[in-house]
Write a structure and sequence with these properties.
The chain has 134 residues and is α/β, with parallel strands linked by helices. The protein is built from two helices and six strands.
């Protein structure tokens, strides 16, 4: 094998190995609670493999922890800052979620730490369970 071909192969390998790490780091660099942040997210997610949906059209439920950033009880939405959720293809981020039941938002305020489960249902990330942690 000639030297230029070895160099190109090595560079291609390094680029392939570094790309997921760079994508994960940049994923936390934008705020999913704003239209601009969601536009950045959608642009970044282009070409990434999607999780397989279940027979009901929804992806599996995933449990994690987060911090409440904003509550929109009237519209049944909550903004959460959370760590990575690999099963949903998410890095650490701040993101708006729809809640399955508006009653889940009762008694919560910005700054509360919560344990929650989320699922992608009909293309929207939805909080199914939500429990305030002390």
């Amino acid at each position: 094998m000639n030297k230029p071909l070895k160099t190109c192969s090595l560079l291609a390998l390094v680029a392939a190995l570094c790309t997921p790490a760079l994508a994960t780091q940049s994923h936390a660099d934008h705020d999913h609670a704003t239209p601009e942040g969601m536009a950045q997210h959608m642009q970044m997610m282009q070409g990434m493999p999607a999780s397989a949906p279940t027979a009901s059209g929804a992806q599996g439920e995933h449990q994690t922890f987060g911090v409440v950033r904003k509550i929109d009880a009237a519209n049944g939405k909550i903004t959460l800052r959370h760590g990575p959720i690999p099963a949903l293809g998410m890095g650490a981020m701040t993101m708006n979620y729809r809640v399955r039941d508006k009653a889940l938002l009762d008694g919560l305020k910005a700054g509360d730490t919560v344990e929650f489960s989320a699922q992608q249902i009909d293309g929207a990330y939805t909080v199914l369970t939500l429990k305030r942690k002390p």
